[in-house]
Amino acid sequence: MTASLHILLNGASAALIIFTASAAVASFFTQSSTARVIASVVLVLATLLIPISTRSVFEWTVSAVGRLSLPGLVLLLALAVSATTGQRIGRSAEFRFAALMLAVAGLVLYPAATGFLNYDTYMLGYSGYLLPSATALMMAYAIFRGYRLMAVVLNVAIAAFLLGIGESRNFWDYVIDPVAWIIGCGTWVAVATGFLLTRIVKPANVLAPSQPSSGIGETPISHRCPPKSSAA
Amino acid sequence: MLTNRSSEALAGWAIALFSAVLIVLLFHKMAPQNAPWTFAINIPDTPVRGALEPSGEVITPTGDHNFVHAASAVETPDGVLAFWYRALYEGAANAEIVSARFDGARWSKPRVVTDSARVSGDIAMTIKSLANPVPFRRSDKEIWLFFAASRLSGWATCEIELVRSLDNGETWGPAERIYASPFLNLSHLTKSTPFLFTDGRIGLPVYQEMNRKFPVLLVLNQDGKVVDRRRIGGGGKVGYQPMIVPTGPSTAIVFVRRLRHASPHKILMSRTDDGGKSWTPPAPIDLPNPSGPISAIRYDASHILMAFNDDPETERNITLALTDLEGKTFRRVGVVARTDNMLKKSNVAYPFLISSASGQYDVVYSRPMGTINHVRVSSAWIEHGAQSPAAQQ
């Protein structure tokens, strides 16, 4: 029973990663959601059969990734839905906020915990008030803004930590994982790039043609005096 | 009947209330523990007795052409139980953790404790290789065995596993993952002896391998789950394979293997005076180190006995030395293993030292990497060597 649960949980993370990546690639070739889903499922199954060295691509992915955190799984699921249906998930303020929180949390956790800094921020997940305080603030903001999915996911993660359901006894491992961090950072790189393109690059290119002109050296149409109203 | 708007509001309030309760419980669970950390100190009785000559054997059977390395040992009611790992070559797939028993006269044939396939099944994740088994006596009959398991390829992709035996190493339970790192639980390895805190928690010295290399103390609860960890010194490229020896209720010293390309070629040492919560940055001491691990145990009320490679460049010998509890003065006792000058690659590596009985000490080590070897020395030999000027040269 426990072994089956381990296989299911470890496999789910790897399957979702492969499925999402496949759907994203498929979206370049087809607009059909059904076709994208079929292609992604086929690719997931194919990774079970394609061997590299002594194990399948799927097994390599499981060994590399292990088990993702709940927020990471939900974020990945949202990306999978987006990649198959073509919905632009980046337009969701809740998704952007969740991605921002994961990007910031990962920036606090990973460089320090892996030895690039002298202070080990991973310790904060065992005891102390700093991480619960940050979580409480994030939760309050999510509830205030009506980000219910995020609040529910955080609650489930906290409950899992309190009950000691996962393999780790460190709170960090229940709210973030490196895959979620990469998705969070990637989302905000995309958001920032989109912002730069629409607010800075596009207006500069678009200004002149947007003014209808009657010819070179002539006053643009929009700058001509409106005809005098007979009522005035 | 509730309208849509009022049921929405009700759901919102329910989530807020539930969240508030969970946050309060989270604060309660994560409340800082202000109790001091204290080591369980066991000062051994060390009568001067035993043979004045070391005795030794090759543990691994002749004709075994596997790569064997990283031996360790634990005392049992009827002798010594040694562990090591074997594979086709270092880091090869399908590795095995094996054990053999010593009854005082001869070593038994090796028996497989676990292997890559079994560990893969236990943790539902394919494992490539296994290494560095480290035993810990949990009770009179219970032994825990920690070891490193490489998930992808290379030691940097290791995580730590634990198997338990309730019958002094006759049979072993399934492997359990030791969750030690936020980065996909990658890149922590074992090498040195665990120890006890007075509250029953277990200190497991480990090290981070990927990119940065630094020693870490993992604190495990009585179920074997990591409940805290402390870096020994800062981050960065420091050293690895820490060997911690508690010297008082709140004091301990740790010997750290230097990095291969680091200078000077000396053993590094760090100290704690708050039960392991904080450690000084590892600094070189006046003993050479060819980048080999150090093994050490408490010898008596005022000394630590250590086994190390007494050479700055190569693992040409394994020497025993006594040091004071501060780790400031060292007195060499004698050499228990040497390179065979007639053979190529006959270095003597990875010493692991235990006290298997009062006044009796066992060192297991590997010769690259064809055999696992054992040497037994007595407190009489140690005391004699400590008095001998020849041993200091």
Brief synopsis:
The complex is a heterodimer of chains A (232) and B (393). Chain A is mostly helical.
Index terms:
A: 232 residues, mainly alpha, 2 domains, two-stranded antiparallel sheet, 2 strands, 67% helix, B: 393 residues, mainly beta, Neuraminidase, 5-stranded antiparallel sheet, 3 helices
3D structure, described in words:
With 232 residues, chain A is an all-alpha fold. Chain A has two domains: 1-67, no CATH class; 68-205, no CATH class. Chain A has nine helices and two strands; from the N terminus they run H-H-E-E-H-H-H-H-H-H-H. Chain A has helices spanning 2-26, 33-49, 57-65, 70-85, 93-113, 130-144, 148-163, 172-175, 178-210, and strands at residues 51-52, 55-56. Chain A has a two-stranded antiparallel ribbon. In chain A, helix 6 (130-144) packs antiparallel against helix 7 (148-163). Chain B has 393 residues and is mainly beta. Chain B has a single domain (36-392), classed as Neuraminidase (6 Propeller). Chain B contains three helices and 25 strands. In chain B, strands 10, 11, 12, 13 and 14 form a five-stranded antiparallel sheet that branches. Chain B starts with a helix and ends in a 6-residue tail after the last helix. The model of chain B has no long low-confidence stretch (mean pLDDT 94). Chains A and B meet through helix 1, helix 3, helix 5, helix 6 and helix 7 of A and helix 1, helix 2 and strand 14 of B.
Indicate the topology.
The complex is a heterodimer of chains A (232) and B (393).
Chain A: H1 2-26, H2 33-49, E1 51-52, E2 55-56, H3 57-65, H4 70-85, H5 93-113, H6 130-144, H7 148-163, H8 172-175, H9 178-210
Antiparallel strand pairs in A: 1-2
Helix pairs in contact in A: 1-2, 1-3, 1-4, 4-9, 5-9, 6-7
Chain B: H1 4-29, E1 55-58, E2 67-76, E3 79-87, E4 96-102, E5 111-115, H2 116-123, E6 129-137, E7 143-150, E8 158-165, E9 176-178, E10 188-190, E11 195-196, E12 202-208, E13 214-220, E14 226-231, E15 240-246, E16 252-257, E17 266-272, E18 283-288, E19 295-300, E20 303-308, E21 317-324, E22 330-338, E23 349-357, E24 360-367, E25 371-378, H3 379-387
Antiparallel strand pairs in B: 1-25, 2-3, 3-4, 4-5, 6-7, 7-8, 8-9, 10-12, 11-12, 12-13, 13-14, 15-16, 16-17, 17-18, 19-20, 20-21, 21-22, 23-24, 24-25
